[in-house]
Amino acid sequence: MVEYTTQYLTPEIKLSSFEGKEFRTEVMFEHHILVWLMCGETRIVMADREHLFSGESIFLIPRNMLAAIINRSTGGRSHKAVAMHLTTERLQRYYEKRMPAVTGLLLPQVHVFTGHPLLESCMASLLPWFKLQEALPPDIAALKIEEAITVLRATDPATDGLLSYFEKPGKINLAEFMEKHFMFNLPLEQFGYLCGRSLSAFNRDFRKVFNTTPQKWLTQKRLQLAHYQLSEQKRKPVDVYFEVGFENLSHFSFAFKKKFGYAPSAL
């Protein structure tokens, strides 16, 4: 049985708890997220790399980064993590008073801070508030978030290049981006946003590049990848459908049989 609960101190600070074999989600976070994984295991899969974390781990997930996040319970203990959302508004107010040590956008990748005592202390100081099950007063919440930002900068000054960058994604090569990220199951609006285009411009440019609609192209690319993983890598349909971009196994099986003439289980 899968049970997932989330307790919010504020809209920006939460404690999540998961009990079950596995919980998967695909995300493009609107804000940077600082995570303290207390127990359990978290795997973050991106287009070109992946990270595996187990408690106790601290890591920062950048905004606008596409990733599949897979949480697991381990050792008979539930998966627990404290997450702090570093919103653009909060960071802009912070940097209005301070000059960043580094400017310019860093590569959108997960930054690891495991083992840093000041960060661990900052995140652990939130636990008594969760036990009280009371809302965190706004002034204390602001202090805690500011403390976390300050410690991140002191730990790695290069983090400024990520936290102080507030621009929206610029217009990029659509074909290269889609070939690299087609397996992420996102709304077309979000694909367009990450390519620096409105939905209408994304659809128009997509047709020019691929000579078909985004949805048809995405389905075909995902099925081709699934067929390769099933036939060449000898994987099982239940382990493949999510990773190639389908929401559920039944939809994947139907689309697969429609394209190839046989069920994925036949491989």
Could you explain how this protein is built, in words?
InterPro entries: AraC_XylS_family_regulators (IPR050204), Homeodomain-like_sf (IPR009057), HTH_AraC (IPR018060). This is HTH araC/xylS-type domain-containing protein. By secondary structure, this protein is α+β, with helices and mostly antiparallel strands. The chain has 2 domains: 3-163, Jelly Rolls, CATH 2.60.120; 174-266, Arc Repressor Mutant, subunit A. 40% of the residues lie in helices and 23% in strands. It has helices at residues 88-96, 117-124, 127-132, 138-155, 160-163, 174-181, 188-194, 199-210, 214-231, 237-240, 249-260; strands at residues 3-10, 13-19, 23-28, 32-39, 41-45, 50-54, 57-61, 66-72, 79-86, 111-112. The protein has a 6-stranded antiparallel beta sheet. A 4-stranded antiparallel beta sheet has the order 3-8-5-6, with no helix packed on it. The protein is globular and about 60 Å long. The two termini are 29 Å apart. The mean pLDDT is 90.
